[in-house]
Amino acid sequence: MNILVVKLSSLGDVVHAMPAAMDLRAAFPNARIDWVVERGFAPLVRCCTAVDHAIECELRRWRKDWREPATRRAFKDFSALLRATEYDAVIDLQGLTKSAAAARMARLAKGGRRIALANRTDGSSYEAPTRWLASHSYRIEPHSHAVTRSRLLCAAAFGYAMPPQLRFGLQPPPTTRVGALQRVALVHGTSRADKEWPESHWLGLGQRLLDAGYTLGLPHGNAAEEERSQRLAQAFGARAAVWPRMPLDQLLQQLSVCAGVIGVDSGLSHIAVALDLPHVQLYNTDTAWRTGPLEPGGGQVERQVSVSGRPYPGLDAVWGAWGRVGS
Hints:
Layout: E1 2-6, H1 11-27, E2 32-38, H2 42-45, E3 53-57, H3 59-64, H4 69-84, E4 87-92, H5 97-105, E5 108-117, H6 129-132, E6 136-138, H7 146-158, E7 183-187, H8 199-211, E8 215-218, H9 223-236, E9 240-242, H10 248-256, E10 260-264, H11 267-274, E11 279-283, H12 288-291, E12 304-308, H13 315-325
Parallel strand pairs: 1-2, 1-4, 2-3, 4-5, 5-6, 7-8, 7-10, 8-9, 10-11, 11-12
């Protein structure tokens, strides 16, 4: 069986779709599972053990530069890749017009199916063409976690019960762990200002971690975040390091050897969950139920927790949460 998963972006959404791919791999161990994804996130998808091939696209950029000859050639090459394999099932886990269009471009085997969500779930983006361009669509319980939504869709489409075990299958490239076990990554960057945590709180948290014997890692994804990382590192001193910007597979490697991660609701925080690192995730709204760490089952020790507050979580609450997961 050949299966094509379509989940183009963003970083957190791609991570949240990985358990669905792992469920498919468990149900069909001999299947070929390919994944269509924006180029920037392809290194991460290639680290998911469920995936055989990542098919890269740059739909965001192509829309802006459509008249450029290089863009047309790139789109033609992308179309050829989608037509190179006959897929028995193409499943759109994103539910947007752009993902539905990508799914529609793929070549189906005789009797193959295009599968989509039939409805919007609470707090998620959804556009009706995703089901109009599919041959089969399935309704999902609206009040579903982002991870569970994709898992339920795959289970319904392929006729298996959703496995009780949650696995992301995210395997970082091998690296040395020397000197990294006491490092905590502070993920302060996010694409939305209303998800940020006050810089003064980061300073207070970082100092408590330093006093407890940890070193600090400060990742960033753009110029503004880099400036904040530099300010924090200057205040913390020699035991704090600003990480350079790097491809996602290298960033995955860096995170994997940390003692834990404390961060706002962002893609890097979701990677920390997928890596099963001790992690505290900060929410300024009540949306942790939808994208935050899922509650552990079977009596497992909590390794990831969410902390919410308005207008943002307090420093003492975050420090207390770290005391539960980081000890």
